[in-house]
Write a structure and sequence with these properties.
366 residues, alpha/beta, six-stranded parallel β-sheet, elongated
């Protein structure tokens, strides 16, 4: 079977990693899967034209009901969709988008939600048939770069490595986008660092996503202008300039997946500060690598982080500091969330189970 797979493919993002992993599942079953960036297409008509070219595609798949799914509305072959997170958490609040997503879901042969909560939200907001939506958590697999140098990583990020083994590095892994809210903890963390200089926060994410970062303090440049490359650079420089004035907070250069996993394994804790999440791969990868997680208390995070059992949740910057202090002082708590987090990923985020689910669903398109 020849399958077209549309997704948002910004380099080194969770969406890109998820799409590549699902493509490998499909191709391992003997299908041909052409993964394309949804940003390449301006309209459903363009995709319909592609699908009908010789030899024609026999089915299609899309991640994100609006950004990619809407592009499949004119095709004449069966397709399935995978919820991305912001489509169900954010886009359903916009009437124009919600109407389009309902059309996509109505026409789709199947849909996949990462969590039961996401399925419930889709059924409530998009009036979908329950039997059409399957729950399949993301499969997790981590791989650490053996030659990774922790001291060099910190040094290149601007962190003093004078007492490198004593530092408690909190790693915020995210694309620098508004929905990820990367500056949410900057002020309070800087204050905490001044009280104890061993605590540092390193923010790491792909620079390409800076175009959609909305800044409420220094960076007041309109988001509508951020498509211009020169302004992307200015925004990036302004962000780095601001962080120079925030003691203990640093911006790291993006790394390969294996290097990122190596950095995660060496840090004290992984942080999530998102306004909205479908299912954070960074959180699950940290759990798999035996690193505690501090996540903002939002539905997508609460679906995978059970407070004080598989990680710690917080609902304000001040509470983040409180929970971090507990993690520093209470070794039993740290060992418990690390142990349970690892077991949770092994039990609920099996790569094998994910592969079998997608292979079975793709077969329904035949």
């Amino acid at each position: 079977m020849k399958l077209l797979f549309l997704a948002c493919l910004s380099p080194k993002t969770g969406n890109h990693t998820t799409a590549e992993r699902i493509r490998s599942h499909i191709e391992s079953a003997g299908h041909t899967c052409d993964l394309r960036d949804a940003a390449e297409f301006q309209s459903p008509a363009e995709v319909a034209n592609l699908v009908s070219q010789s030899p024609p595609f026999e089915g299609a798949l899309a991640i994100h009901l609006y950004r990619a799914g809407r592009l499949l509305l004119d095709i004449q072959v069966p397709f399935g969709v995978i919820f991305g997170g912001t489509d169900i958490n954010e886009d359903v609040k916009v009437e124009q988008k919600r109407v389009v997503m309902e059309q996509v879901l109505l026409k789709a042969r199947f849909a996949v939600a990462f969590t039961s909560k996401m399925k419930e939200e889709a059924e409530f907001f998009l009036l979908s048939q329950s039997s059409k939506i399957y729950v399949q958590p993301q499969g997790i697999q981590t791989e650490v770069e053996e030659k990774f140098c922790w001291a060099e990583f910190l040094r290149s990020s601007g962190v003093s490595t004078e007492h490198v083994d004593e530092l408690r590095v909190f790693l915020l892994v995210c694309g620098l986008r508004r929905v990820k809210d990367p500056l949410y903890l900057v002020e309070v963390f800087s204050e905490w660092h001044c009280e104890n200089p061993l605590n540092v926060l390193v923010i790491i994410g792909p620079k390409s996503s800076l175009a959609s970062l909305r800044k409420t303090e220094l960076l007041t440049v309109g988001v509508s202008l951020m498509c211009r490359p020169s302004l992307r650079l200015i925004l990036h420089l302004l962000l780095k300039w601001e962080l120079l004035f925030k003691a203990g907070v640093f911006l790291a250069q993006e790394r390969s997946q294996q290097e990122l996993h190596a950095a995660v394994k060496r840090c004290f804790a992984v942080v999530n500060s998102s306004v909205s999440e479908g299912m954070s791969a960074a959180i699950l990868e940290a759990m798999d690598l035996g690193v505690p997680v501090l996540a903002r208390d939002i539905p997508g995070n609460a679906a995978v982080v059970q407070h004080e059992f598989t990680g710690l949740l917080y609902s304000s910057p001040q509470e983040f500091v409180h929970q971090s202090q507990r993690l520093v002082a209470d070794h039993e708590l740290r060992e418990r969330v690390v142990r349970n987090g690892k077991l949770y990923v092994e039990e609920h985020h099996s790569l094998k189970q994910e592969r079998e689910t997608y292979q079975r669903l793709v077969d329904t398109l035949l």
